[in-house]
Amino acid sequence: MNKLLFRTRIKFCGFTRAGDVRLASELGVDAVGFIFSPDSPRRVHPTEARAMRNAMAPLVDAVALFQDNDVEEIREVIKQVRPTLLQFHGGEDDAFCRGFGVPYMKAVAMQDEAVDARALHTRYPGAAGFLLDSHAPGMGGGTGRVFDWSRIPAGLNKPFVVAGGLRPENVFDAVLATLPWGVDVASGIESEPGIKDGDKMRRFVEEVRRADCHTESEPASRQPA
């Protein structure tokens, strides 16, 4: 793949403040994530997410993240927030994920057993893509831990997004090592859970774009100032 012709998509996740959503949009991110997982410190109410969605710029996608939420709660989020993509982190099967009439992405735990691409496609044929995260099975993201990028299975025929422990200091290397469709970050751009740091957000975007423009003749890492 010619990196000069490819743009890595960026998703910032776990927003709790409209001002942070507005800044993310201005920085050029592709998607903004709102978390409705019951145990997440970044969990927001649908009415809060709806207000933050109004701060989003045009052409930025809203993503709603769930983890074993009940059907009625998910339907209420869809009604109020109008997400363009759903993201499931729990034990949901393909039929459940497809049942809401909104494209979905399934999170895949990358910490323990090896992941088989063919089995993943068979288990989630309706998925628009997969989010490869460092969380343990049955747990949500936002742990701040990096998984071994070399364990990404070959043969993934759908877009995949790399998450888990990404931050401005390592996302350049992550993009070059994995050539993902996109990258997803929450804790790596925060001062505390749910509170985004504007400088970290800006530097994260800059590093992804730097990786997209990287050529083999250039040094892989930025030299210290």
From TrEMBL:
From the UniProt record, give the pathway where this protein acts. Amino-acid biosynthesis; L-tryptophan biosynthesis; L-tryptophan from chorismate: step 3/5
Q: What class of enzyme is it?
A: isomerase
Q: Which domain of life is it from?
A: Bacteria
Domain named N-(5'phosphoribosyl) anthranilate isomerase (PRAI): which ranges? Answer: 11-206
Reactions it catalyzes: N-(5-phospho-beta-D-ribosyl)anthranilate = 1-(2-carboxyphenylamino)-1-deoxy-D-ribulose 5-phosphate
Which EC numbers does the record give? 5.3.1.24
Q: Which UniProt keywords apply?
A: Amino-acid biosynthesis, Aromatic amino acid biosynthesis, Isomerase, Tryptophan biosynthesis
One Pfam family name is: PRAI
Q: Which Gene3D superfamilies match?
A: Aldolase class I (3.20.20.70)
Q: State if Lipid biosynthesis is listed as a keyword.
A: no
Q: Which GO terms describe its molecular function?
A: phosphoribosylanthranilate isomerase activity
> Would I find Transferase among this entry's keywords?
no
Q: Which family does it belong to?
A: Belongs to the TrpF family.
Looking up PANTHER family in the UniProt record yields:
N-(5'-PHOSPHORIBOSYL)ANTHRANILATE ISOMERASE (PTHR42894:SF1)
Protein name as annotated: N-(5'-phosphoribosyl)anthranilate isomerase
Gene of this entry: trpF
